[in-house]
């Protein structure tokens, strides 16, 4: 341990008292008067480097981690039995709503439809003829009802065949990108067989999760930003905030909707939602200036007008790659930027602003905080 000047004074005084006690008395007739003790005026305050920081008004953001996903995702299945006759669109293709993707063999359905339509024409003529006979009193109502029933049955047959033929034509239910095709040319399908998936990325969605302590900060309709892993930013609006938490995580699902006319996006990319919060005053600093006190509270050391070290708890407002925005400090504040690990709250120090080099007792400039020593001056 390094002895302070006051320690040497105390040791000297103790030695004089011990000498007097062993000799019994001091020579009162000595011609030389005892010298007065030398007053030590050395300033033992530790030198620290400080820099003045002023707060600025910023808009903090609530960051929610999540991933991208399609606005809509549909697995297209076969509605009829039949063999795959033609594939008109491949995986990865962008298709428009109603565009033909795949053709299933129609077998004899077109011929049956033609016959059914001819039967409808015949039943229509029969029904009209019976109506005329009823008007002339030559036909009873029972016969008219039978002809009407036959006509409706023929029409129903036409409708059923049209639906069956339409079922052989696999069309896109909406505009999107095709994924995960599960059939090949010549595959025989049964009704309900999975064919292909279609993903709608306009708009696309970032789904994230918010902790219950931050739930009140997220409102449906709020304008927010999305950021993907490649560093791209997107503007959108919160379209959904779940009212039910996941039982395991106690987090709530949040969805950000982003317009995407180009449809250039992928499902499952790591992303985050950045929701603006109320404007606040904060100071931008290096994380190296922050520390924990004995209670584990995050804060920063600074000096007051009396050059006394203070430790003030801070709150992280916003993080960036080159530093953090913090609040809770006086404004302005003289933060200790070099030597903060060598001093404690309540300790009086020699504060030297960053613009001026710190020098040791010999007058040499101190270049690093590892060389920082007590600046002593008489």
Q: What structural keywords apply?
A:
6-stranded antiparallel beta barrel; 378 residues; 22 strands; disordered N terminus; OB fold (Dihydrolipoamide Acetyltransferase, E2P); disordered C terminus; 3 domains; 6-stranded mixed sheet
Structure description:
This protein has 378 residues and is of the alpha+beta class. It folds into 3 domains: 46-58 and 280-371, conserved putative lor/sdh protein from methanococcus maripaludis s2 fold, CATH 2.40.420; 62-69 and 200-276, Elongation Factor Tu (Ef-tu), domain 3, CATH 2.40.30.170; 78-194, OB fold (Dihydrolipoamide Acetyltransferase, E2P) (Beta Barrel). Helix content is 19%, strand content 37%. The protein contains 3 helices and 22 strands. It has helices at residues 5-23, 109-135, 141-167, and strands at 46-53, 56-58, 61-77, 82-87, 94-95, 100-104, 169-171, 176-179, 188-189, 194-211, 223-228, 233-241, 251-258, 270-276, 280-285, 290-292, 298-303, 309-313, 315-320, 323-327, 333-338, 349-353. Strands 1, 16, 17, 18, 21 and 22 form a 6-stranded mixed beta sheet that branches. Strands 3-10-13-12-11-14 form a 6-stranded antiparallel barrel. Strands 2-15-20-19 form a 4-stranded antiparallel beta sheet, with no helix packed on it. A hairpin with a 2-residue loop joins strand 19 (315-320) and strand 20 (323-327). Helix 2 runs antiparallel to helix 3. The two termini are 22 Å apart. Mean pLDDT is 83; it is low at 1-42 and 367-378.
């Amino acid at each position: 341990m390094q002895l302070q000047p006051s320690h040497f004074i105390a040791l000297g005084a103790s030695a004089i008292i011990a000498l007097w006690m062993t000799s019994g008395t001091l020579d009162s007739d000595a011609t030389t008067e005892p010298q007065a003790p030398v007053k030590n005026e050395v300033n033992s305050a530790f030198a620290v480097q400080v820099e003045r920081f002023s707060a600025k008004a910023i808009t903090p953001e609530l960051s929610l981690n999540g991933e991208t996903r399609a606005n809509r995702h549909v697995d297209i299945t076969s509605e009829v039995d039949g063999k795959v006759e033609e594939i008109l669109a491949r995986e990865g293709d962008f298709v428009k709503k109603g565009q033909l993707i795949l053709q299933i063999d129609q077998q004899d359905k077109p011929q049956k439809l033609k016959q059914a339509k001819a039967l409808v024409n015949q039943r229509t003529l029969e029904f009209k003829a019976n109506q005329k006979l009823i008007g002339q009193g030559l036909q009873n109502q029972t016969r008219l009802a039978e002809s009407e029933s036959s006509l409706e049955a023929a029409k129903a047959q036409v409708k059923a065949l049209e639906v069956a033929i339409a079922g052989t034509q696999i069309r896109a239910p909406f505009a999107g990108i095709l994924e995960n095709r599960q059939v090949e040319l010549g595959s025989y399908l049964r009704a309900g067989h999975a064919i292909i998936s279609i993903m709608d990325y306009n708009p696309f969605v970032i789904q994230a999760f918010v902790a219950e302590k931050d739930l009140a900060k997220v409102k449906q309709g709020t304008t927010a930003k999305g950021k993907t892993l490649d560093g791209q930013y997107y503007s959108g609006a919160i379209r959904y905030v779940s009212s039910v938490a996941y039982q395991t995580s106690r987090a709530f699902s949040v969805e950000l909707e982003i317009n995407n006319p180009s449809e250039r996006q992928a499902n499952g990319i790591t992303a985050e939602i950045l929701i603006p919060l109320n404007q606040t005053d904060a100071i931008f600093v290096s994380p190296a200036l922050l520390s924990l006190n004995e209670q584990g509270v995050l804060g920063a050391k600074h000096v007051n007008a009396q050059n006394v070290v203070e430790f003030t708890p801070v709150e992280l407002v916003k993080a960036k790659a080159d530093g953090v925005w913090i609040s809770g400090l006086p404004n302005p504040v003289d933060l200790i930027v070099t030597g903060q690990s060598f001093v404690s709250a309540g300790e009086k120090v020699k504060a030297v602003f960053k613009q001026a080099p710190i020098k040791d007792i010999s007058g040499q400039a101190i270049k690093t905080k590892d060389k920082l020593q007590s600046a002593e001056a008489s």
